[in-house]
Amino acid sequence: ACDTPPRTPTGHAPYSESDLEPASSPAVVSQEEDERLAKELSLKEAAAHDLSHRPKRRRFHESYNFNMKCPTPGCNSLGHLTGRHERHFSISGCPLYHNLSSDECKGKATTRDKQVEERALSHRQDENRHATRNQSQAPSERQLRYKEKVTDLRRKRNSGLNKEQKEKHM
């Protein structure tokens, strides 16, 4: 036997005895009422997924303002300082503002591109040159003789030191 009172559907303990009793009349729903409730529910679900409050997405060409002009007096908005675009709409990209023509900007862009390409090619060649060195190759005769000479010199130098000096160096 359980001492705690039974809980209501919401999970709370009942406030009175009437909370524990089931409803006196069974809920009989007519077909019309059932259809009306189903229709209400479907409308609520549709409203929950309604996206009309969101702004409509526009494609780039729909939102693009073709009437924009460069603010520089006497400029026709053609060309770009970087030489990569046909038009500009601000002072920062205006060739006229920077005392250049659009053709000069294009020419400078092509020379910059060539320089970048040459640098990249030079870098690739440097990498290839270093990669061709064979690290697994045995040392040459000259390298072996030099190594022996250095080890002999070190051995002679270290043998001449007394024990106290050796301890200081180590």
Please describe what this structure looks like:
The protein is mainly α. It has helices at residues 17-20, 31-48, 60-63, 102-131, 141-160, 163-169. The model has no long low-confidence stretch (mean pLDDT 77).
Structural class: mainly alpha
Q: Write the element-wise H/E pattern from the N-terminal end onward.
A: HHHHHH
Rg on CA atoms, Å: 44 Å
Low-confidence stretches: none
Number of strands: 0
Strand content: under 5%
Write down the overall geometry.
flat
What distance separates the N and C termini?
A: 86 Å
Could you describe the largest sheet, including whether it forms a barrel?
Answer: none
User: What's the total helix number?
Assistant: 6
Percent range of helical residues = 40-55%
> What's the average pLDDT?
77
In short:
With 170 residues, the chain is mainly alpha-helical. The protein has six helices and no strands. The protein has helices spanning 17-20, 31-48, 60-63, 102-131, 141-160, 163-169.
Itemize the secondary structure elements and their pairings.
Blueprint: H1 17-20, H2 31-48, H3 60-63, H4 102-131, H5 141-160, H6 163-169
List keywords for this structure.
170 residues, mainly alpha, 0% strand
